[in-house]
């Protein structure tokens, strides 16, 4: 659909547009569409579209004036002209269309029926301006309408879309974010207002929310966890990596942390509580209590099957720790490690005890952050074992754990790209 002036009227449904690639005239991808920005007008006139919000690397949302959009067609948005790389900040009387309007309850003017907004369509006028002319809604089953029936109505046929709703749905908004990685979803959520942020958090399943919280800065995840019911917060903490859960509980205060630990499953709570005993910037405070641990009589095939599990982080999948029973941390005495590359070179039936690398230097839980970083760098390791005075394996610290602590606190959401402009 060409958007040049003088073309026939075009209609673009914005929820369907979300995630669409944005390209320059040369065909180079600049980012993806995440939302649209509109301004409300008086007398219930259709809102005017001011521009699109696109996400550019690294997870930065910027504003593109709609006048820079030259084409929306076949899953592509083409833009031209100047590109302002400053992070998007909404102004007074501006609305982010998808995050604020999707799933909202509105009223049909002719029947007073309550319906749900499923999508919003912007249309190109003869003057070359874009307006929100139509709203796609779902009927809730009142009156002669059956639940699940859909209609596309004029903006003037509904009311209440700009009224704040105390418990707005999120199904359609989540649909536009479904394929995002946890780090990207965390970034998008933090761009929303507090009300929508909490509504989305409550709608995500425990595992997905746990992944998102692990990607947030301390202040943001503490604030979000505070909005959850006690039982729900405990369920989410159980899904987090123990070291991340321990970090979060340290941040919320001792009294509240103890209450949440009491609501968690005893086994999960024990691992997290054990980590909380260590200082944050030490090997013990950074380690995970769930590395891959097997005994010496386990086979290469068994080790590879554990490494293949999707939930195992790359750093932990780089090696298997071989210990005397028990294999749950704290284990029996650490005997050595088998690196992933060695596993690939050996027959499946080979016993791990015969291919051990016992020439390793484990770390004590009190080892300081800088020493841990130096150790990993010196020996080119992705993970290092942490042992107690009896050489029992307590856990493992990985490169990503160290980076999380070495980088500035706001590294996840700090603008890494300086403001700049790009000309045609």
Automatic annotation (TrEMBL):
This is Mg/Co/Ni transporter MgtE. The keyword Cytoplasm does not apply. Keywords: CBS domain. GO terms for cellular component: membrane. Residues 287-353, 356-416 form the CBS domain. InterPro entries: CBS_dom, CBS_dom_sf, Mg_transptr_MgtE_intracell_dom, MgtE_N_sf, MgtE_transporter, PRC_barrel-like_sf, SH3_actinomycetes. GO terms for molecular function: magnesium ion transmembrane transporter activity. It comes from Candidatus Nanopelagicus hibericus. It comes from the Bacteria.
């Amino acid at each position: 659909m060409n958007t040049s002036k003088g073309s026939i009227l075009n209609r673009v449904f914005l929820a369907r547009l979300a995630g669409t690639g944005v390209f320059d005239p040369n065909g180079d991808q600049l980012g993806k569409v995440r939302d649209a920005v509109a301004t409300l007008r008086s007398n219930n006139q259709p809102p005017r579209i001011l521009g699109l919000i696109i996400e550019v690397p690294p997870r930065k949302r910027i504003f593109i004036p709609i006048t820079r959009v030259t084409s929306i067609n076949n899953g592509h948005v083409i833009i031209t002209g100047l590109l302002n790389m400053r992070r998007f900040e909404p102004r007074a009387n501006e609305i982010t269309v998808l995050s604020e309007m999707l799933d909202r309850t509105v009223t049909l003017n002719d029947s007073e029926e309550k319906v749900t907004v499923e999508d919003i369509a912007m249309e190109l006028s003869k003057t070359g301006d874009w307006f929100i002319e139509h709203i796609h809604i779902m009927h809730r089953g009142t009156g002669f309408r059956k639940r699940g029936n859909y209609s596309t109505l004029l903006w003037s046929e509904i009311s209440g879309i700009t009224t704040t709703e105390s418990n707005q749905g999120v199904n359609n908004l989540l649909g536009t974010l479904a394929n995002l990685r946890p780090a990207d979803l965390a970034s998008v959520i933090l761009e929303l207002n507090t009300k929508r942020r909490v509504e989305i958090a409550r709608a995500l399943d425990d595992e997905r929310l746990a992944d998102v919280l692990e990607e947030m800065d301390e202040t943001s995840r503490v604030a979000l966890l505070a909005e959850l019911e006690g039982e729900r917060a405990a369920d989410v903490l159980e899904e987090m990596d123990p070291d991340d859960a321990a970090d979060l509980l340290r941040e919320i205060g001792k009294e509240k942390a103890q209450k949440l630990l009491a609501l968690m499953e005893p086994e999960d709570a024990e691992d997290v509580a054990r980590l909380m005993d260590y200082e944050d910037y030490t090997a013990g405070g950074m380690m995970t209590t769930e590395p891959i641990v097997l005994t010496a009589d386990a086979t290469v095939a068994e080790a590879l099957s554990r490494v293949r599990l999707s939930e195992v982080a790359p750093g932990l999948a780089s090696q298997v720790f071989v210990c005397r029973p028990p294999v749950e941390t704290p284990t029996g005495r650490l005997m050595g490690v088998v690196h992933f590359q060695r596993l690939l070179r050996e027959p499946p039936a080979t016993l791990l005890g015969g291919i051990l690398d016992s020439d390793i230097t484990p770390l004590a839980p009190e080892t300081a952050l800088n020493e841990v970083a130096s150790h990993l760098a010196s020996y080119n390791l992705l993970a290092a074992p942490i042992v107690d005075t009896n050489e029992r394996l307590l856990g493992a610290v990985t490169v990503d754990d160290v980076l999380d602590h070495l980088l500035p606190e706001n590294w996840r959401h700090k603008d890494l790209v300086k403001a700049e402009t790009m000309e045609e």
